[in-house]
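It would be a great kindness if you could assist me with a short task in structural biology. The matter concerns a single protein, recorded as an amino acid sequence and a row of backbone structure tokens. Kindly check, if you would, that the fold set down in the tokens agrees with what the sequence suggests. Thank you for your consideration; the sequence and its tokens are set out here:
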Amino acid sequence: MLIVAVGIAVISGALTALQTRVNSQLSLELGDGILASVISFASGLVILTIAVLVAPRGRDGLARLTTSVRERRTPWWYLIGGLFGAVFVVGQGLTAAVLGVALFTIAAVATQTITGAVIDRVGLGDLPKRPVTALRVVASLLALAAVTFSGLAELRVDVPIGLLILPLLAGVGIGFQQAITGQVRHVSQSALTATFINFLTGTTVLILAAIVHTIVVGWVASFPSNPLLYTGGVLGVLFIGGAAVVVRTIGVLLLGLGTIAGQLLGALVLDLVIPISGRGLPTTTVIGTLLTLVAVSLAVLSARRSHVATPPLTEP
């Protein structure tokens, strides 16, 4: 069960890599990164809204969650997981052009990993606590080293240090997002409901950001006609849903390590199958990807040794 859950985390990360490629191209053709993010989130929200209305499990889950929040058995802030995802997207759009994607990713992964380890140690809601072991620490450091190594070819150091604050905070937010989304799934007994709530809050925040952005820079001239560029929302739904299902089984740290490994592995496959014009495949990227897989293997070994009791990986 542990291996299956980690496999889902890795696949979810790979879907994120594909989503990044799709959204980046949409952003490029629109000339507006924030609007591209709104389209991605909003399309996912439309799909999830239909699914929640049609599926009894989604409606029942929403009713359970509403009742739990109303009766104050579940804190209201468990419902704002999507806010952290939106902050990450906006932060990436505002600072990645200056910092470079590599430095932004390294900073975010560093704090995401630390946040995951802390939440696992102290617990959050009904999430099982997990001990900090030597193997988990080594796995975390190895994952950070792998992300750094894979981005060496594009790493920039001549940047304003103050801009690092946003990606560092974004990484913390992603760690919390994964934890509280898993908690919402537990309360509602539905991954569909947890994913819907995530997209609802994230889309709301991004729409507000897009309104302010449009007032400042104006509306885009035209929209691209390629329908594949509008599939980012579907990929996001699969990623968030997968994370919501497995986080209670493997913990926030191992979920983060698995998705990071999946992102690098997915990006590597994309570069091989659909290479970006004018960019080769750096050796550092290959080595970095292999290092993340080693890091995940160490974290899995630590989890198996700790014998943490976890609930079954099935939807009620």
